[in-house]
Structures are given as structure tokens and as C-alpha cells.
Write a structure and sequence with these properties.
Blueprint: H1 2-22, H2 24-32, H3 41-131, H4 138-164
Helix pairs in contact: 3-4
Keywords: Coiled coil
Region (Disordered): 1-65
Coiled coil: 67-124
Amino acid sequence: MSSNNDNNAINSAPNAATTNAAAPAPAAATANSPSSSPSSSSSSGSSSGSEESLKVIIDRPARTQEELQADAEAEALEAQVRAQEQLQAEAESRARAQARAQLLNELREGIRILEENVASARQYRLQYAVAYPGGPDTLRCITHEQNQIRALAAIRQSFAHMQACWYW
């Protein structure tokens, strides 16, 4: 049985060496930890650089999260600005369309009034010519009627041009 004990001692020797070699490593890691004893504080001065780099690695996800949050806020703000610009452009477009419709209605009304004026001037000229053939105001009546016809032609041309314009 003693040979069996010798074999166990030989077989356990390498295990003991491996166990003893591995044991100081956790102790060294504990010495570098922030909660180490005051006696190991002299060695922590040299490990502060590694603690800082470890802290940077640990803090990096937090900064990245803050950057992502800032990017998301910036994108949201840009989207809000784009939405406001689109709403403003739509409002301006509606205002232009409303102004255009109002102007075209005013031009239609102006055409109607000028057509009435031309008809009235023509009727007055004809009545005057019948009542006073060759009278002194005959030329004035003809000139007035021609001016009304010219004004009507000009406003009709403006109306047609404005109806054709798509950009305003």
C-alpha cells in the first residue's frame, strides 16, 4: 500500500503546483481592485492607468448612448423643421392660390364692368349721333367708346395671361 501512497503523492504533486500557481493570480487581481486593503494602495498607483482605461471602456457605452440620444434628438429636430417648412410651403401655396383666385375674380368683374361701359358708350354715341348728327361731342363720344374697347381688350389679355400662368 505504500507504493499506492507514493503514486498518489506523485500524482498530487503536479496538481498542488498548479493549484498554488493559480492561487496568487486572484490575489493580485484583488489587490488592484478599488476595494483593496490600504496596504495594497502603494501598488494601486501603478495600476491607476489600467483602472482609467478600464473605466473608459466601461463608460464608452454610456457616452455612445448619449451620442445616440443626441443624434436622435437632432434627427427629430430636423424632421420637425422639415415638417414646419412643408406646412409653411403648403400654407404659402394655399395663400398664392387664394390670391390668384381673388385676382382672377376681380379681373372677371372688371371685364364685366368694362363690357357694360363699352355697351353704354356705344349706346350713348349712337343716341347722340341720332339726336345731334354732326354735333360737337360726336368725336368725344367716339373716343370714349374706343378707349373703353381698348381697356376691355387689355384687361381680357391680362386675364388670359394670368389664367395661363402656372407659377403664381
